[in-house]
Amino acid sequence: MTADAPLPPEVDVHLRIWLADMMFDYIATARAARNLIDDWQRRKHQHSVELIRSTVEERRLLPRLPCERLFACP
User: Fold this and answer.
1) Has residue 58 been placed in a domain?
2) Considering only CA atoms, which of 34, 28, 33, 29 is closest in space to residue 3?
């Protein structure tokens, strides 16, 4: 997500989290994803978080981000 192209907070996005060599794919609201990424950067994690372009049909197959509501607050 960039400041140039913000998404409405209620839009779902495909979020990929890398921990060591393992990849975890989730869907989350754009607001939760932005807050998670901001928190991730503040804590200087050595792992990666990515936003993936995917279709609505592909996102329907993914689980929601665990504890997503914790990151959905402004």
Assistant:
1) yes
2) 34
Reading the chain (74 residues) residue by residue, the pLDDT tens digits are 444 555 565 788 999 998 888 999 999 998 999 998 888 888 877 778 888 887 777 778 889 999 888 888 76
**Residue 53 structural domain:** 12-66
The H helix count followed by the E strand count for the chain is 3, 3
- The conformation of residue 61, written as its DSSP 8-state character, comes to T
Tell me, yes or no, whether 74 lies in a domain: no
> In angstroms, how far apart are the furthest CA atoms of the chain?
33
User: How many C-beta atoms surround the C-beta of residue 15 within 10 A?
Assistant: 25
pTM for the full predicted model: 0.74
Asked whether residue 28 is domain-assigned, the answer is yes
Contact predicate 9/1, CB 8 Å:
no
Q: Looking at residue 23, what DSSP letter applies?
A: E
